[in-house]
Amino acid sequence: GAGVSQSPSNKVTEKGKDVELRCDPISGHTALYWYRQSLGQGLEFLIYFQGNSAPDKSGLPSDRFSAERTGGSVSTLTIQRTQQEDSAVYLCASSPQGALAGELFFGEGSRLTVL
Amino acid sequence: KQEVTQIPAALSVPEGENLVLNCSFTDSAIYNLQWFRQDPGKGLTSLLLIQSSQREQTSGRLNASLDKSSGRSTLYIAASQPGDSATYLCAVGGLTGTASKLTFGTGTRLQVTL
C-alpha cells in the first residue's frame, strides 16, 4: 500500500495475556519507529529501527516489551503479560532515512485495551 | 533532556479567523521540527517539516516558522475552516542524544466553529 499499515486496529485482551502488534512501513523506508499514545498524554517514544537493527530502544518501558524488524520491512511489537497500564494507542511511523533527514509518516495506530 | 511545550492546550475560533499555534522547546540543538495534525481516533498526518537551517515553510493556508535560538516555532493557519478542527502536534528532532527520534509536545486541540 501507499501508507504505513498497522494491524490490528483494535485489540482487547485480558490482563496477563501476550499481544503482538504489526507494522508495515512504506516500501523503501529504512527507518521505523514505534510510539505510544496514552489517553490525554503526548506521544512517547518506544524504539527506533534502522534497517533490521535497533540503535535506540531506550523508550521501551519494561522487559515485557520487545520489538523486531525483519527484511528491513515489517516490524512486530510484542507485549508479554499485559497490564492495564499498557492500554494505549501504539503508533508506528516510517521515514526514508533516519530522523536526522526525513519526515515521519505515521500509521493509524493499534488501540490496545487491557481488561 | 528535550522538552516540548505547546500553548494553548485548546482553542476555539469562528470560521474565517486567522490563528497561531505556539510550540517551544528547551534544547536549541535541533536538527528539524515537524508539525502534525491528528484527527480523533486516527494517526498523525505530517503538515510541514522545517530543517534547522530554515526559518519557515509554507503549504497552502499553513505557514510554520522556526526561531531555533529562542526555542520557538509557530504554526499560522489562515482563513480557518471547520475541516481544520483537529489536534496539532509539534515534534522536534534532536542532534545528539535524541538524534534518532522526535520529541513531541502534547498538542493544541483546535475547534473551528461555523
Q: Brief description of this entry?
A:
The complex is a heterodimer of chains A (115) and B (114). Chain A is 0% helix and 50% strand.
Describe this structure in words.
The complex is a heterodimer of chains A (about 120) and B (about 110). Chain A has strands at about 5, 10-15, 20-25, 30-35, 45-50, 55, 65-70, 75-80, 90-95, 105, 110-115. By secondary structure, chain A is mostly beta strands. In chain A, the strands form two sheets. In chain A, strands 2, 4, 5, 6, 9, 10 and 11 form a seven-stranded mixed beta sheet that branches. Chain A has a four-stranded antiparallel beta sheet with strand order 1-3-8-7, with no helix packed on it. Chain A is globular. With about 110 residues, chain B is an all-beta fold. In chain B, strands 2, 4, 5, 9, 10 and 11 form a six-stranded mixed beta sheet that branches. Chain B has a five-stranded antiparallel beta sheet with strand order 1-3-8-7-6, with no helix packed on it. In chain B, β4 (about 30-40) and β5 (about 45-50) form a beta hairpin. The model of chain B has no long low-confidence stretch (mean pLDDT about 90). The chains are: A mainly beta (about 120), B mainly beta (about 110).
